[in-house]
Amino acid sequence: MSIFRNLFQKKHNDKSLQSALLQMQGKFKNFMSILESNNKVLKLISDLEEKSQGDYLFDINYLKKSVNEIKLDSTDIIDNLVMLGGNQYLPLKEINNGIFNLLDDILSRKTRIIRDDYCKSFNLIGNSDIPGFGGKNARMGELTSKLNLPVPEGFAISAWAYKSFIDKHDLSTKISDKIKQVDIKNFGDLKKVSQEVEELILNSPLPEDLSDNIMQFYNELTSGRQDYFVSIRSSALGEDTELSFAGQYASFLGVSENELLDSYKKVLASKFSPNAIYYYLSHNLDESELAMSVGCVKMINARISGVIYTHDPVKPDDNCMVVNSIYGLGQYLVDGTVTPDIVRISRKDNSIISTDINPKTSRLVMKQDGVLNHENIPKAEQDLISITENELAILIDFAVKIEKHYGEPQDIEWVIDKHGQPFILQTRPLRLIKASPRKQMPDISGFQLLASGGTTVCPGGGYGKVKHIKSSADLDKVSQGDVVIARNPFPGLVTVLGKINALIAVIGSVASHLATIAREYRIPAVVGMKEAGAIEEGTTITVDAGTCRVYRGNLDELVEAIQPEFDFFDGDPLFNVLKKLLRNLSPLNLIHPLNDDFIIANCKTIHDITRFAHQKSMDEMFKGADMIKKDDWVGIRLKSSIPIHVEIIYIDKELSAMPKKRVIKPEQIDCLPMKAFWDGVIQEGWPKPPPIKTKGFVSVVANAKAKQPKGEFGKKFGKKSFAVLSKEFMILSLKMGYHFITYEAMCSDVISKNYIKMQFKEGGASVDRRIRRIKLITKVLEYFGFDNSTKGDFLDTSVSYESKESILEKLRILGRLTMLTKQLDMAMSNDSIADFYTQDILRKLKQ
Amino acid sequence: MELKTAGELMIPLDKYPHIPYWFSIRHAIAELTHSQLVIDGQISLARAVLVFDDEYNLMGLVRRRDIMKGFEPENFFGDQAHYSQHLFEVKHDPDLLEISSERLHKSIEEKAEQAVSSIMAPIEATVDYNDHLFKIVYEMNHHQLSMLPVIKDDAVVGVIRTVEVTSQIAKNLGIKLNT
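^ inputs. structure came back:
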């Protein structure tokens, strides 16, 4: 039997009443614990959301701590709900655990590798395959299957294939143990560990079924042609998504059948190149989260190749596309060997805004046997533009389609073969940097200008001693705070980006992979500054990357003035972790308690769990109270001028501390929210009984009632109203004849705890009239700042985070509104009259 | 001739304005002003508002004439009007009263806030859902009513007015309705 029944049936001094009251108070404690934990969870989520706006700094420990606290509270919520409502709520635990397993994975940044085929043709994969085949492969598939754009034929080897290989030799543990010992500031150390790991991978044979499957796909691709070569390139699962990883992993061009499997392993091993290890360790990434998928793509013997940025990455407001073009294969562009021709195209009308032709002294071409060959370009051709207007138009058309498809600026690699056939090799999101307006500039007239020219890769300024770097071998000499001048922006430079103040490349373009990475690291960088090569080693210089100028000396005031205001967290790995966490914490999928989908199985986020638990805990509390029969007598009954008997249970009082009299007046209510609400009720008052003379009328049509709709609706509630109260909290279930309302309110000195929640249901009139009344109440409550959700004649409304005074005032409003809308549904015959009553009630409540 | 029943001719209750007895005269006026009845494509204003108690028992109805009565001067200034009537034994003429427009306005507002039950008229007759046209005509003539509640299984299910009755008679006579 319900503890409510025990509570209400016994006499006041009965011991069992005491026990029932204690039991009830225990249940209520569960309910209050749910509320408290609920508030804590929502506050923690809200705090994380605030951090995600980028205005506050945070670290990984903050994220871990927050998630841990949320876990404790959400577990507490479910435990209390089970105690309140029974084992039916146990499945919530499983969902909760599932979400936190996922959150733990995000925090530790493990990637769960999905079981998939070892290999798939590009035309069979798309964006949904990113988890299994990486962004680069998936987008290649998407370009051909969805956009029908020309991409080289080929197939992708899945991350599952990588896992099978790694698992077969238990390489994961061995590799992790080695990487843990790396000092990322020491290039020699990075190189040593990298070599050890690469050897480990290259010396381990591929599983037989995997190598067979790769060869089967290769043979289907080449149909046995001996002059068919492929490129083998990485598509790591994290690559080109939130972090660019541009150029950090190896690609192999002109690969023949015999070299295929070894090249595949070499690409896998490149995941542990010194650059790559540095990159993910410096981004707080874990080795295990970067599983490797690989693409096997038909080799295109390029006449020209290049990159299109659909916006200028450093001047996004210029509203133009930037096309970089060189002769031969694109390798010399992305590794910075050749400075490309740069054509800027207006995004408005595709007209050419400017053409910057650079001398292209060499090109990389593939010979008939697949071997790559460095060729010098005849002098007469070096200064000619490498791309025609017609080719530009075709590529721009592709670029517009790709950007439109992905809905964001793109960095697109392209190639045009000897026959003039264009191909898209890859596309990825383009990171834009917007320099803030310059502050007042200091006087730098006394400082010597040492070099100028080139192209801004990343704006800003930095000073330090010059270190000239020709190759990876020189990287060890770079110290904290240096300015690096490199001959070309080769990928190995990434290992020093964390400690230098500025980077200059004598040749190269913004299209190089290193440029992408420099923008990611926010390192002021200029490429193509020829004069910089002559600056003496060890000279202290200041680089103004925005204007591409280098001054002798330390111009700290200039550096301060030209510092761009980056959206600091954009692209930051921790920021991305936070965004992923929020995706599993914050969205609310369970909207309306009356919806069919308001079920445990649909709790997808922690917010869903809190929403569900709050609603169900309320239901459980009211369910118990609904068992109170009309003749039951609770210890305390509220008696006022309103003929609604409200049975009151105090959950913060001992039985002995309860009022001796079993009937209390409104002024004796020892609960702030209930008192305020009832003040509102009394202010409007209860309708006076009809005049005596009208009684005769009824007899004329005895029992002539308005026809009631069938079913549950229209039934008059015989049950009692009741309230469970404490000093600052109330839940009140009010049976108003033909409709019932539940109220829940917390009113304390702590604003974050305060809230009101009301649910309004049913009525005596026809459904359309009841719905009109709900609309009226919604409009009125909207005016007073409530957040409403309706379904048919059911209203769920709430307000929170308000001061004590505001909560009390709103409760008074609710009390008045409750009276003003009593059986108002009867009068709501059309929308016009409903509008009249809405305005009428609003006018009254505003007085 | 086809004899239709009250159930077939009536305006269903959910289309007809009705209010609880404690609603004000102002509310009844608003109901009459805002309610639009669309019957056979013809739009008309409701002539009365049905009044129910909180148990959904039909208590009466408020017609325009009941509202008019409610605003008669003696209902505003009962004592003064009766006093003058008694002294001079003439029919009270409101023009003779010295009433300021401000006071009059205030009085109208006050009167309008009184419960509609204070002016409603009794239900003197009803017809059954299955009663045919002649029975309806008889009840209307006999009680000199232009509107009757329609009862089915002890519940009010609608109302029938002289408009519906005469329209039906017109149809039976082959007179085309102007819709």
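Chain B touches chain A through 42 residues (CB under 8 Å). The longest helix of chain B spans residues 101-112.
thumbs up if we can close this ticket
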